[in-house]
Amino acid sequence: MTLSASTGQSDVASFGVGYEVAEPHVLSSPLVFSSPHSGRIYPSGFLAASQLKLAQLRRSEDAFVDDLFADCLKVGAPMIKALFPRAYLDLNREPYELDPRMFEGRLPPHANTRSIRVAGGLGTIARVVGHGQEIYRERLPIGEGLARIEALYKPYHARLGALVERAELAFGFALLVDCHSMPSAPLAAQNGAGFGREPAQPTRKADFVLGDRHGASCAPAFVEAVESELRSLGFTVARNKPYAGGYITEHYGAPSFNRHALQIEISRGLYMDERTVTPLSRFPEIRSALRRVVEALAAAAASRLPVCRDAAE
Questions:
Q1: pLDDT score of 205
Q2: Model's pTM, two decimal places?
Q3: Rounded distance, CA 276 to CA 274, Å?
């Protein structure tokens, strides 16, 4: 749970591939876990370019989510996690959701400059964090933004795609679990977007929100297995509101092609002090609860292996 800062001459180069993959001793489950927003290495150049303090930048970080789901290895499933923070580069976006207001230079012609997430300042390279706080002192050279996409975004998704494909080949189908956290306080609309996954609604927050793109990205049985286990543990659970799933869930979830994707959002107030970004004393309790959720999901996946294979034939 350490926080660090890069001191290399090139922020992008300092990350290497920008992700880590934890593999189980034996691959025995079609589950694949992804933690794209829990990276906590803040490059020195990024911090220097920002007009915000580190504590403000961390408001968009899904802090410690990778640690909470680490027991996925015990059911025979891998986890991939980003090393860089979401405020630096957001993996839960299309590769070129770019805001022309924040760059010096011409954007590539294939850039998506009109999405609701870009309009809210939450594109692939975020313009804002928290409640609309501008990150940068001045415009970024477009070459800097494109370098982050080429060196960090694309390798992450290439490896994530390979893990999903491996699971499908080994087990007949794959189930991607996209792991996130959410502020515990009720959200009014944040620049039209709940951190970009879906427009936020002013409502009382559940402990967990399960996103399956309103049934489009994941078989109902898998969502029900997670919801049932969470409710049995005393948590409140909502589906798809205010977070139905973002680019990762949409891009990798294709049940008709034996690829399922489920987004799980955890209320940060359950496990950490949101002001200081430090774990609470009940952190081990929440991790233990999530281990039971992971085990229930793995059991549901194992029980459906023959059904999924038959459906594909």
A1: 83
A2: 0.90
A3: 6
